[in-house]
Amino acid sequence: MKSVADTPTARILMVEDNQLNRDMLGRRLTRRGFDMIYAIDGATALEAAESECPDLILMDIGLGEDNGLEVTQHIRARHFGGSIPIIALTAHATAADREKCLAFGCNDFETKPIEFERLLGKVLSYIDMGEFRE
Fold this sequence. Notes:
Rossmann fold; 7 strands; single chain
């Protein structure tokens, strides 16, 4: 029988410049068993995506001085970034916004404020780790 110690931990890189959003969502994902890595800007996100090898990236599109869509393109252009699922997190909720995120290389799109269970379903579908379900 498989024990908890034998279960691999999925690693999520959350790129979010808002500390409150980062802390709230990060805590909820940690409680579900994910190993969280954080970046607050584009440069840190690129470095973490390469060095930490996350299983999935949650990318804030409105990153203050950086643009999450451009950061996504930079990740996709690098040898390590082609296969990492990236879910865009944004307050912009139109169909055109969604299409723009997908065109820049995001795999999926979630609007803020985050509806946690819907986001969790998307995360689980991309990393296919059913053991993180309650």
